[in-house]
Every structure is written in C-alpha cells, then in structure tokens.
Amino acid sequence: MAASSPAEYISHHIQNLTFGERADGTWGFAQSAKEATDMGFMAVNVDTMFWSIATGLLFCWLFRKAAVSASVQTPGRWQSCVEMVLEMVNTSVKDAFVGNNALIGPLSLTIFAWVFLMNLMDLVPVDFIPQISHALGLPFMKMVSTTDVNATFGMSLSIFGLMIYYGIKIKGVGGFLGELAFHPFGKAFLPVNLALETVSLVAKPLSLSLRLFGNMFAGELVFVLIAALVPFYIQWLVAVPWAIFHILVITLQAYIFMMLTIVYLSQSHETHDSH
C-alpha cells in the first residue's frame, strides 16, 4: 500500500470502498475515485455501511450489557457511565422538548451514542485499517462513517421525515401548510412567508448533515495530513495532542446532532398557539 507521493497517500485514505456497476457492465469495487464517481447513484460505499452497522450493534450490545447487569446495591463502572449518559440525555430532552412524545428520549439516546461511536473510530491510527484491508485485497477502507456525507445526510433525512410526520400529525395538514404560508408575516405576505419557511425547513436537514460531516471530515483529514507530511519519528508529538483535542470534537458533534434533533422535533410539536 505504498504511496508514491503525499497527494496519492491522502487521496487513498479519504476514498471510500465503493461497490457498483463498472463501465464495462461488470460489478465490483471501484479501483479509483473516478471509477467510483462513474458508478453513479446506485453505487454503495461498503465501508460506510459496514462500520455504521458495526457501531450500531456495538451500541446495542454495550447498553444491553449495562441493563442486564444493572444493580442498585453495587453499580459497576460501566453502569455508572451509562446512567450518566442517560441522565444527560433525559435532562436535554426535558429542557428542549415542549411536547409529549415517548419516542424522543430513546431516539435522542440512540443518536448521541451511535454518532459518538462512529466519530470515535477517528482515533484509530490512520494506517491500521487500510493496511488490513489491503492485505485482504480491498483497495480502500474508511472507518469513520460520519466522514461520508451520504451517511450524515441519510441520518438527517430520517430526522426530516419525522419532522414532517409529527408536524402533520400534531397540527393537521392545514395547520402544517398554514405555518409555511402564513408565518411569520401573516396572510398578506403569503409568497414571502412561503419562500422563507420553505428555505428554513429545507435548511434543517442540510445543517444537520453538513455540520457533522464537515467537522469530522476535517478532523480525519488532519490525521491523514500528519501521517503523510510529518516525519514518522515525531508524528506522535503532533498526533497525540490533536487526538486529545479531537475527543472533545467527537463528543461535541454527537451532542450537537442530538440537540438539534430534539429542537427540530420540538418545533414540529408546537402548535400555532404556542408561538
């Protein structure tokens, strides 16, 4: 997996393992970024799918382990850690969510823990997984699913779907469309209201996806740049401080994604009288 130049090394490490239909009609893994692009919409980033599912299963296993072994008399360290996360999520929901919906708490916990675990993969040394994948005959392998805009946009679209669903369920079709058409300036400015509210509505899933993707991709790129450009014998002097700082970024991005989800779904539960 030796790269002939830093540019080649960097482009290799930020490329997803993409499976799709090649130009000659056969199906397989793309061997270059151009070939991955040429595969079109139906191509699948296999590494993103694998690591997102793997971290999701890890989340389920870890929290189930805490629930099964929970003890009031002698709580273990992992139980205490899970309880702290649960308390944080519960407090966030109580403070930011105005409605009454039993889904919001579990959804918020899932989002925070799952996004945190996906982000946490960014702390794995940048050459570790690519070297293993190369030994297995795979041309590329990225561990951090949140550095793939397809993953972050997919999650944000799921939240957007819930926003539309609960907006119509709580307010009715007329109330939902009325907010788009008559707010914030009243019926006399319907075209202006519709343009502003439509842009505001569409911007919500975009802000969710691009904020997470941008921050995590930038963090991953810094690690790759360090590995590509800094001499090996001093890489740790640069990489370790950045990794320690990046722990804050990883946690903060998971928290922001969760909080924005709570706020957006809270707005979907608000009625006209509550404005």
Tell me briefly what this model is.
69% of the residues lie in helices and 3% in strands.
From the structure above, extract its key features.
mainly alpha, 9 helices, single chain, 275 residues, three-stranded antiparallel β-sheet, globular
Question: Which class best fits the helix and strand makeup?
Answer: mainly alpha
Number of domains: 1
Q: Roughly how much helix do the residues carry, as a percent range?
A: 55-70%
> Order of strands across the biggest sheet?
2-1-3
Number of strands: 3
Please give the radius of gyration in angstroms: 22 Å
How would a textbook summarize the main sheet?
A: 3 strands, antiparallel
Q: How much strand content do the residues show? A: under 5%
User: Number of helical runs?
Assistant: 9
Which residues form runs of ≥5 with pLDDT under 50? none
Shape: globular
The N- to C-terminal Cα distance equals: 58 Å
Order of helices and strands: HEEHEHHHHHHH
**Average pLDDT over all residues:** 90
Describe the structure.
The chain is mainly alpha-helical. It has one domain (6-274). The chain has nine helices and three strands. Strands 2-1-3 form a three-stranded antiparallel sheet. Helix 4 crosses helix 5 (104-120), helix 7 (149-182) runs antiparallel to helix 8 (190-229) and helix 7 runs parallel beside helix 9. The longest helix is centred in the last third of the chain and has 40 residues, at 190-229. It is globular. The relative contact order is 0.13.
